[in-house]
Structures are given as C-alpha cells and as structure tokens.
Design goal:
- The complex is a heterodimer.
- Chain A is mostly helical.
- The two termini of chain A are about 20 Å apart.
- Chain A is globular.
- Chain A has one domain: Non-ribosomal Peptide Synthetase Peptidyl Carrier Protein, Chain A (Orthogonal Bundle).
- Chain B is α+β, with helices and mostly antiparallel strands.
- Chain B has ten helices and 19 strands.
- In chain B, the strands form four sheets. In chain B, strands 10-11-12-9-3-13 form a six-stranded mixed beta sheet, sandwiched between helices. In chain B, strands 14-17-16-15-18-19 form a six-stranded antiparallel β-barrel.
- In chain B, helix 1 packs across helix 7.
- The longest helix of chain B has 12 residues.
- The chains are: A mainly alpha, B alpha+beta.
- At the A-B interface, helix 1 and helix 3 of A face strand 14 of B.
- Chain A: This is Acyl carrier protein.
- Chain A: It comes from Acrocarpospora macrocephala.
- Chain B: InterPro entries: GcvT/YgfZ/DmdA, GcvT/YgfZ_C, GcvT_C, GCVT_N, TrmE/GcvT-like.
C-alpha cells in the first residue's frame, strides 16, 4: 500500500472511533472532550471506568447510532474504542 | 534495593535491576509463568513497588495537587491509579493511591520509588509528612482468572468479590494487612500490603495455592492489555498524550502539577501517537524505524516476544494520522500489522467470580 492509501485507511478507522467517542460522551454525559478518550484505552474497570449500567446504555446507543445489535456479544467488544469500531464497522476488522 | 523476599525465592531465580529495585524477572520459565497468569493465578513479588505515606492536616490537599487524578474523596476503602507529572507534563510515575484515615498511601511503580519520593519532597509546599514505609511494609500481588479462588482459600472468600479498586483492612494469620482489588493485566487482580516481618510467611502460604510469576511475565501481560509501563514508554521525553495514558489524568480537575502542559499538548494536536503492532520474525530494539509505504513515519517504543500471540508484539510511536489499527508497516525489513487493543483478551472477562 502507498502511504496515501494507508492514511485513507487510518482515517476511516479514526472517523468511526471519533463517532463512537462522541456517542459515549453524549450518552453517558461525561465531562470530557470526546478526543480525550484514546482509541486503545480500556473502557471498563480500568480506563473509562464504565459499569454494567453504562453497558446497557451503550447497547441501546450503538443500535440507534450504528444499527448494530451487540446484546449477545462478549465483553471483549468493549475492550477499547478501537475494538468497538471493529464491531460497528466490520470493514475495519483486523485479523492479527 | 533488593527484594525482601529474596531469602524465600529459589536459588536459581533470575533477578534484574529495574530503576532503583532488584526484582525477580523470572523464577523459572517465562512462557510457563505467563501461562499461569493468563490461565490460572500467579503470585507476584511486588516489593520493588515503594510505599510512601503522606500524612498531616494538608495530606489530601497535597495529594490532590500532585496526583493527576481526583483523590479528594478517596476514602480508606478505595484506591485509585493515577499518573504523577512534573510541571512540563512529563510522567514522574504511575502510582496506586490508597485512601487512609490520616492521609494517603502511595504505591510507586516498580523501581520508581526514589524518583517519586524526590519529586514529592521537592514539591511539598503544604508541609506534609512524607514517609517511606518500605522499611516496614511490602506488597504481594495475585493476578489471574482464578485469583479470586486463591483469595478465598488464603484469606476470606468475601474479599474476592470486592469491587474493582476497593480496599479492606483485614487480618491474615493474626497480622493486619491492607487488601485491595486492583490489577495490571486485565485479569482479576489483588494486592496485599503486609508488614515485612510477615511477608515471607504470606508468600509461602500463598504458594500452597498458586505459582509465582516474575516481572517479565507481568509486564508482558500488561503490554497485551495496554496497561502503561511508563519507564519504558516515556523514553525520549514522550508526553502523556503521545503514550496514550490520558485515562490516568483527570482534566476536569481544577488544578494539578502538569495540567497546563498536558492540556497544551492535547490541544496542539502535535506529536506522535502510540499504536500496537505484531509481526516479523525478530524482536526489534527500541528506536527501530517504522516505515509506511516506504516513508519513515516513526519508531518502535518497545517490543517483546508475546507468548499469547506466538509472535512479536510491540508498541510503535508514529505520525498521528497513521496511529490506527489494521495498517501494514515495515520494521527492520519485516512486515508488521498494527493492532486493536487489547491484543489478548483476558480470560477473566468471561469468568465470573463464584
């Protein structure tokens, strides 16, 4: 891939991540700028310190915002914003 | 500083100097110790973590000013991980802060005690008492998907289900200990702060239920879940934003040392960002160049052989516009792929405490 193609691919993921961060901040009424949340930071326990009630709120928000139902998913999908991006925009999914 | 548990560790334990502490890197085989931590439960010698008591009438005000997260209402039943920054926003240390009745107890990261104490004393405008308690207290850790079961057999089953970052003053074998639910690896994690004279007994009693793991296995598991290891990640003067440790800083707090510098770095959008990668047959050294489409876009921060992935795992610091998962880069002639965190999903996320 050329560097321009790599930049375009990165931009697509960063755009989805930004959309998720804005959704989290808005739905959970957090007092931080969305971009303060990093793509890789943990969301539960450590990190953003969300709890199980927040998860329920996010399930609903994700379905409304992205049309993706994650109700039966494992907790791993909330491992980070970037991991969540893989779920709401499957074109991004990485096989590592 | 040598571990206070050296006399009970096996004779062939491999030690290494980390900052100001000599710590057990491994007791035997790294892959075995890693697997114990990820599959069952591991006992950790955390005596390289310095315990520093902050006391006096202004202890909370002092800690609130020096720590980057909000500790104003940290009760004696809670602990919290926070960065400590200097005026320029550089990371001094990553600490665990325990609320105590007469102030706070700070636990440094491994080998960073001298640096932390020096920083605290140099910034002691409030005139608090800063006491190094590492002469009489030390720390043991338990981490793993079944660490909760070990807590039940060793001390009390009710302690196993404490909420994350909850703290309980309890008694083990007639010895008062501070027990906390913590964790560095994404697995269930606990810490026991114990008087040094009882540490060896608690270590040996723990070994009846669990296997010991060294610093190498612990830091590998930390890397896999993007738990910051500041001493490795801030080399070259990287700031909080560049290492991606924003979550250990509370920018909604009115004031703390380093806040202005961190906010300036955030708002400028300048600098590089950190992303995980895997691939290649060798483990590149820190500083190895990262190429994207043939152009130099950054460097390797650290890299190891990941037992869990069966491949090289590392962190790279690259141009912000390329700090994203799913990209193909080249490091030392080998193709690598950037990753989504966590790089290994902790087993604890799918195992309930029963």
């Amino acid at each position: 891939m050329t560097i321009d193609e790599l930049r375009a691919k990165a931009a697509e993921r960063q755009q989805t991540c930004t959309q998720i961060k804005k959704m989290i901040v808005s739905r959970l009424d957090l007092e931080i700028e969305p971009d303060w949340i990093t793509d890789d930071q943990p969301l539960f326990g450590r990190g953003l310190e969300l709890d199980s009630l927040d998860v329920l709120e996010l399930y609903v928000a994700i379905e409304a915002e992205f049309g993706v139902a994650l109700y039966d998913s494992e907790m791993a999908v909330f491992g980070s914003v970037s991991r969540l991006a893989d779920e709401v925009n499957p074109q991004l999914k990485v096989t590592a | 500083m040598t571990t206070v548990l050296a006399h009970v560790h096996p004779g062939d334990t491999v030690y290494g100097q980390v900052g100001d502490a000599s710590v057990p890197l491994r007791f035997g085989d790294l892959p075995d110790e890693y697997q114990v931590l990820r599959d069952r439960a591991a006992l950790l010698d955390l005596s390289g973590h310095r315990l520093i008591e902050i006391s006096g009438p202004a202890a909370v005000d002092f800690a609130q000013r020096l720590l980057a997260r909000d500790v104003e209402y940290l009760t004696s039943e809670r602990c919290m991980m926070s960065l400590v920054l200097d005026d320029s926003g550089q990371v001094v240390d990553q600490v665990l802060a325990f609320g105590r009745e007469n102030g706070l107890l700070l636990e440094s990261s491994v080998g960073a005690g001298d640096r932390l104490i020096e920083h605290l004393r140099a910034n002691n405008d409030e005139g608090v008492e800063i006491t190094d308690r590492s002469g009489d207290l030390t720390v043991l850790g338990l981490e793993g998907p079944y660490a909760w079961g070990v807590v039940g057999r060793l001390i009390d089953g009710e302690l196993a289900s404490l909420p994350f970052e909850a703290v309980a003053d309890t008694v083990w074998n007639d010895v008062e200990i501070i027990f906390a639910r913590t964790g560095f690896t994404g697995e269930y994690g606990y810490q026991m702060i114990v008087p040094i004279e009882s540490a060896a007994d608690l270590w040996q009693a723990s070994l009846e239920h669990v296997t010991a793991a060294g610093q190498e296995a612990l830091e590998l598991a930390m890397l896999e879940v993007r738990q910051p290891i500041p001493r490795l990640e801030t080399a070259g003067g990287a700031n909080v934003i560049e290492i991606g440790a924003n979550w250990l800083v509370d920018v909604t707090k009115d004031e703390f040392v380093g806040k202005e510098a961190v906010l300036a770095a955030f708002e400028s959008g300048q600098g590089r960002r950190t992303v995980g990668f895997s691939g290649g047959d060798t483990v590149p050294e820190p500083g190895a160049r990262v190429l994207a489409g043939g152009e130099d876009v950054g460097e390797v921060v650290l890299a190891v052989r990941s037992v869990g992935l069966g491949a090289t795992l590392g962190l790279a610091r690259v141009d912000a516009e390329l700090a994203a998962a799913g990209l193909e880069f080249t490091v030392e002639g080998a193709g690598v792929t950037t990753l989504t965190s966590p790089y290994i999903v902790p087993k604890s996320w799918s195992i309930p405490i029963i």
